[in-house]
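Budget justification aside, the reviewers requested a transparent look at the raw inputs and outputs of the sequence design task funded under Objective 1. We therefore reproduce one unedited record. The lines immediately below are the structure tokens for a 558-residue chain.
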């Protein structure tokens, strides 16, 4: 395959740093070299005023009391709130119902799901102990009252001298007619102000994917002279309605306004042989970020890996050479190796396109906001598993994350498959263990709150609550790491079903979607964009809009 695209976009060559030499002629500025041994101490983040993960209750959990769906002796719940926090139940909850779910309870995801799945298991970002108000499970006992009302109150949080703070918490809410979830704040014992409201007017009852496995980020104005704030989570429902679970509550100082120009990137994945949509997406991205410093292609660039398919993509890239960023960074996906030919042949076609000699590597995006490191991970051998990896690749990632954490830099990590229990669909069994070292990689990233993983593969909607996830790990940094679903250039999928074990996936519609990423000194801003579908007969449209966005602070920034 003769490639005009590659010849025109080879801007730089690999450099030698430390002891590592990368392939000459890579697309982008490749870097390498050892980081400092050990992990950086990143726990003291000045902008965090209060954290509550509920994990301090892990040693105080009780065995099953009454829930008929849980085996006797299974440990996993308590009504005792963390120090400074409290629960107040409505008088109707005093008698009848199931003891474990009498008002806000503190439990584990596994214990809660053992009672019954019904989309509870989709709370995949939950870490260890979570807070749960569940009118449905409470109603599984005798003498259940006709109403359910319970309030969880935070400890008093010092806000003296601040004009504004930000409340964040992980949230998993399933609504029902007549059910309401509210978050309020009160300063110094005063009246409550409502910050968040879920009810039948704001939530689609029974199933609303935007509120499952989601994060709420709420700016809060602090009155002049206020010293302390108390946040409350109110849950009211008729008997046998649905539930609300929360985790990882944090109150932070509000980020200041951005200053200066960012280093920007375009992100696309799951093109899978749709050159018309790819060409249109590139033009739309140029329309909103014409000065972008990189294009990240996060796997499934072709449909099966044949030479003709690579040529089609190459032709699109050549045709867009006038708008392409200086650096193009490609990652390998599963669709790069579906022709039935030997793995080595298919891998080498990808490497020819990517212009490097291995599937994993490191790049620097050089832009107005400074240099931004990009770490590319990928499959090294034929399946199974979906992502076989050498120990060399894993230890290289450990080394490079430590290197950039030591320099207080946010680092972009791109890999086609999601890690288990991160973004949309990764709670489904066949997506949760794609990597040979899934658990090790998750724990490794969990120690680096400056790491942001971009993954594709699932084709799930940006509109879901777990489009972007702050994933925490046991023993990791309390902020965990962020991971973002890249969307897809070719078709969208979604899940259907109450039980995880019986889940079904369906193709919902044609789409053409991707991301823009803007990196500033103290944050990364990711916009999920819709470009609208096209074909050879209708090569253009007016769609180029932001579906949603997320701002990811750099907790290591000064």
């Amino acid at each position: 395959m003769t490639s005009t695209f590659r010849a025109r976009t080879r801007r730089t060559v690999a450099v030698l740093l430390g002891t590592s030499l990368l392939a000459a002629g890579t697309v982008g500025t490749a870097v390498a070299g050892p980081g400092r041994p050990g992990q950086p101490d990143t726990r003291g983040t000045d902008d965090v005023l209060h954290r509550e993960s509920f994990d301090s209750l892990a040693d105080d959990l009780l065995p099953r009391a009454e829930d008929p769906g849980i085996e006797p002796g299974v440990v996993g719940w308590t009504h005792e709130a963390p120090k400074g926090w409290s629960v107040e139940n409505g008088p109707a909850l005093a008698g009848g119902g199931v003891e474990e779910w009498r008002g806000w309870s503190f439990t584990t995801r596994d214990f809660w799901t053992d009672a019954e799945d019904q989309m509870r298991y989709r709370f995949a970002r939950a870490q260890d102990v979570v807070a749960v108000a569940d009118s449905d499970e409470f109603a599984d006992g005798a003498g259940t009252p006709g109403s359910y009302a319970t309030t969880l109150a935070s400890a008093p949080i010092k806000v003296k001298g601040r004009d504004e703070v930000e409340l964040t918490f992980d949230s998993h809410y399933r609504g029902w007619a007549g059910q309401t979830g509210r978050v309020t704040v009160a300063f110094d014992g005063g009246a409550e102000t409502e910050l968040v409201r879920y009810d039948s007017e704001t939530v689609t009852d029974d199933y609303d994917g935007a509120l499952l496995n989601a994060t709420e980020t709420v700016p809060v104005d602090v009155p002049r002279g206020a010293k302390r704030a108390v946040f409350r989570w109110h849950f009211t429902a008729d008997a046998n309605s649905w539930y609300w679970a929360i985790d990882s509550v944090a109150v932070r100082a509000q980020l200041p306004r951005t200053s200066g120009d960012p280093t920007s990137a375009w992100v696309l994945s799951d093109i899978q042989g749709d050159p018309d949509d790819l060409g249109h997406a590139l033009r739309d991205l140029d329309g909103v970020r014409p000065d972008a410093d990189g294009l990240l292609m996060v796997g499934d660039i072709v449909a099966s890996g044949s030479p003709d398919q690579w040529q089609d993509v190459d032709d699109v890239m050549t045709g867009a050479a006038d708008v392409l960023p200086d650096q193009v960074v490609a990652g390998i996906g599963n669709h790069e190796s579906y022709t039935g030919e030997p793995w080595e042949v298919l891998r080498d076609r990808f490497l020819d396109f990517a212009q490097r000699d291995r599937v994993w590597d490191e790049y620097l995006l050089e832009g107005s906001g400074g240099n931004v490191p990009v770490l590319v991970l990928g499959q090294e051998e034929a399946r199974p598993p979906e992502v076989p990896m050498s120990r060399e690749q894993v230890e290289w990632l450990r080394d490079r994350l430590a290197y950039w954490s030591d320099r207080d830099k946010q680092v972009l990590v791109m890999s086609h498959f999601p890690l288990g229990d991160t973004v949309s669909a990764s709670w489904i069994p066949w997506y949760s263990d794609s990597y040979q070292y899934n658990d090790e990689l998750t724990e490794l990233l969990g120690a680096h709150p400056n790491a942001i993983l971009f993954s594709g593969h699932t084709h799930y909607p940006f509109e879901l609550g777990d489009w972007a996830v702050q994933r925490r790990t046991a023993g990791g940094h309390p902020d965990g790491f962020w991971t973002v679903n890249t969307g897809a250039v070719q078709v969208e999928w979604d899940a259907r079903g109450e039980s995880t074990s019986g889940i079904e996936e369906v193709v919902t519609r044609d789409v053409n979607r991707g991301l823009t990423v803007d990196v500033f000194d103290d944050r990364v801003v990711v916009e999920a964009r819709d470009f609208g579908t096209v074909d050879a007969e209708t090569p253009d449209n007016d769609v180029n809009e932001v579906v949603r966005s997320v701002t990811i602070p750099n907790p290591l920034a000064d």
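The chain has eight helices and 31 strands. The first strand starts at residue 16 and ends at 17. Computational costs for records of this kind are itemized in the attached budget.
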